Amino acid sequence: MTNEKIPYKIYLNESEMPKAWYNLRADMKNKPAPLLNPATHQPMTAEELSGVFCSELVQQELDNHTRDIEIPEDIRNFYKMYRPSPLVRAYCLEEKLGTPAKIYYKFEGNNTSGSHKLNSAIAQAYYAKKQGLKGVTTETGAGQWGTALSMACSYFGLDCKVYMVKCSYEQKPFRREVMRTYGASVTPSPSTETEVGRKILAEHPGTTGSLGCAISEAVETAVTNEGYRYVLGSVLNQVLLHQSIIGLETKAAMDKYNIKPDIIIGSAGGGSNLGGLIAPFMGEKLRGDADYRIIAVEPASCPSFTRGVYAYDFCDTGMVCPLAKMYTLGSDFIPSANHAGGLRYHGMSSILSQLYDDGFMEAVSVKQTDVFQAAEEFARVEGILPAPESAHAIRVAIDEAMKCKETGEEKTILFGLTGTGYFDMVAYEKFHDGQMDDYIPTDEELASYAAKLPQI
Amino acid sequence: MTNEKIPYKIYLNESEMPKAWYNLRADMKNKPAPLLNPATHQPMTAEELSGVFCSELVQQELDNHTRDIEIPEDIRNFYKMYRPSPLVRAYCLEEKLGTPAKIYYKFEGNNTSGSHKLNSAIAQAYYAKKQGLKGVTTETGAGQWGTALSMACSYFGLDCKVYMVKCSYEQKPFRREVMRTYGASVTPSPSTETEVGRKILAEHPGTTGSLGCAISEAVETAVTNEGYRYVLGSVLNQVLLHQSIIGLETKAAMDKYNIKPDIIIGSAGGGSNLGGLIAPFMGEKLRGDADYRIIAVEPASCPSFTRGVYAYDFCDTGMVCPLAKMYTLGSDFIPSANHAGGLRYHGMSSILSQLYDDGFMEAVSVKQTDVFQAAEEFARVEGILPAPESAHAIRVAIDEAMKCKETGEEKTILFGLTGTGYFDMVAYEKFHDGQMDDYIPTDEELASYAAKLPQI
């Protein structure tokens, strides 16, 4: 099928692996807006933040200027267990589509957590351990982040307390069990363990929870228990910093074979994968050294970029977290229950929001049946069963490749394949059985949520 | 943690990948016993076998003399999608155990099928396609083989009909759904679709099926439908041939870094992984070029090697298949329902049976709670959630490493990590909840099954 010199999978040698994360903010002229104290509406200080987050992570969160931040040796050693992740040339998909485009994907599902989330989980666990903490708290929805954090905490001998959105807890018992295998405690949220949980339960009896609600519970538990801090798997600047390992490896592998992508595509929920994948490419673009077309893909049922508002908003339902400026649908927004495709967070990374607002990237939204159709098409030829989240990027990569087929252009397309779909078979089953539909929020609905944004 | 030159993961370059499978039988002085016609008890001819199997696979099944059999280019191209698989130095496990032993594992779970089964599935699908067949039939228990075959058939555009042991079909709906994603049809066995299925249902109403029964149904469907053949994921000589890719890659990677294993450990159900992993090492041993300690690990609840009989036996319950000489517990033997660890087949590869009988390898059996304990210990430090099947080898690798700790010997231990346990979380849950026990068949039970062996 191929006689070209570019292998199916490009792996870096250990010696070629990045030794520092890349801090994209250093190259941004318009810096991302700071987190605000929800009471005073003043920028959060390091001291205020360090009640919630580990100290070194607070520094990373606030550092808008240091370009390269060294990856500690212990983290690099852990990365070696599952990194470098492969950069794959999708020869089989290209052939199936009959496209002249060259398609590459960076596959982050080759570890037990099953997704890219481990890249930041291990970093956050490392800094927690270094600070001498007992443990960390977090929330998880579909369970990828919770799984990754459980693995990381197990590795460093940290206690790990996960608040799992109740509907996922009940629908995804296997995810829960993986976390238990790694020694984490998993509580369905909202729970009666926290004040904010009890309050939400009193106001909404029978609720099956949301990410925003689980975040509130995790934060409360962290700040009210000695020796604990809260950690988060997306949205934050520190998370994008850690995830830059994805883009750095990708760029090193492409440079090695003299490949230059024309289009870079990533799925976008809170922005952790997209921000990591594009980081060094966006850096070149910001510095004027190269140009790339960069596309964020989001679900039509949770369209923060394409139909949201760029404004300060709460990160959680209980409003205990700092305020972040971001493209948001409003902190009360929850995608329709029939949405099975992940990427459900109401907001978006402040870094990516600023870059999008400045016109450095595009965004498109896609319907979930189209996403699952792309997922299945990809799985059948490329031999990887993608997570629904990841399949958003596949959908647009295929769409762009088909445009190349029409025009005859031999564009090079790169996308991020963030993880595997082993724990999403209920959603696949719905799709196979024709029971999946495409709910899209109306303008009126979105306006009603936007009207509740804090006035800042 | 490490400053050694040997990387965490050793990958071969594409140019270093094997271009031919290695046929271990060529180096065996005592050849494996031939398959016998169940009616005449005469060796099965190529013509007889070609009613059941694809023609080229029949040749491979019967060829005891050609040492190297070229891997067709189409198969090598498919292999490139997920191979070479990594050979991993288990630095973290070594550190956790505090052992001076050096532990390596060849990880075959890095593909959507989640196990080594894909290595033979793609080969068998290729030959079926080449012969112009419409499709293939097979059976699956836990679902690894069915998943792998579905992927392979999807790739070549072949129809794929899977008989899935009924209890697995009901307990593992996600496995079934993965197969559907790849376009396979999946039928719970015993079914009313086949004569043998109806007969078994009449004799055992309410039975939840067995591998031996599903095999009978798959074979009947293949031989009674124009353009179909039967394919099998283990036991057969052809399967071990294809799986030699595991051992060949392992040996090439070890040779590259001048590593020589002292002990080689593999889990053994029907023998597909063990036979593939050890092939080139065993070849050296048979030729007197090198010596290795080779250990087959099987479940205490299904102990073919350690407590079985070396005799001709039926491969299936319906007795429609040829007879094979093997270490067997009797074709009616089914492990206790509380056994969750896989490796449930009553017999064992004829090749491995002969080698074991000739004293070229050892066998041990392990209890399932010990297996899951090893699985969890491994997962927590190595970041891979192993399939219960694979964890049998982990158990013995840890045991051997702990012996080295006692003696201070720096032995090099190699084991095969055949796949991931994402679809085995029910079993992990049982283990976590303390609801897993260790049923071991009594001597009387085994004797009663052995008494029913065919007299040949």
From the 3D structure, determine the CATH topology of the largest domain in chain A: Rossmann fold
> How many strand units of chain A?
15
Number of helices of chain A: 18
Main beta sheet of chain A, described? Answer: 7 strands, mixed
Low-confidence stretches of chain A: none
Question: Taking strands numbered 1, 2, ... along the chain, how are they ordered across the largest sheet of chain A?
Answer: 1-4-5-15-10-11-14
CATH class of the largest domain in chain A: Alpha Beta
Number of domains of chain A: 2
**Cα-atom radius of gyration of chain A:** 21 Å
The largest inter-chain interface, given as chain pair and residues per side, is:
A-B, 48 and 48 residues
> In terms of structural class, how would the helical and strand content of chain A be classed?
alpha/beta
Strand content of chain A: 15-25%
CATH architecture assignment name of the largest domain in chain A: 3-Layer(aba) Sandwich
Shape of chain A: globular
Average pLDDT reading of chain A:
94
Task: Please explain how this structure is put together.
The structure is a homodimer of 456-residue chains. In chain A, helix 3 packs antiparallel against helix 5 (118-130), helix 6 (144-156) runs parallel beside helix 8 (173-181) and helix 11 crosses helix 12. In chain A, the strands form four sheets. Chain A has a seven-stranded mixed beta sheet, with helices on both faces. Chain A has two domains: 10-15 and 73-114 and 241-450, Rossmann fold (3-Layer(aba) Sandwich); 44-69 and 117-230, Rossmann fold, CATH 3.40.50. In chain A, 42% of the residues lie in helices and 16% in strands. The model of chain A has no long low-confidence stretch (mean pLDDT 94). The radius of gyration of chain A is 21 Å and the shape is globular. The termini of chain A are far apart. Chain A is of the alpha/beta class and 456 residues long. Chain A contains 18 helices and 15 strands. At the A-B interface, helix 3, helix 6, helix 8, helix 15 and helix 17 of A face helix 3, helix 6, helix 8, helix 15 and helix 17 of B.
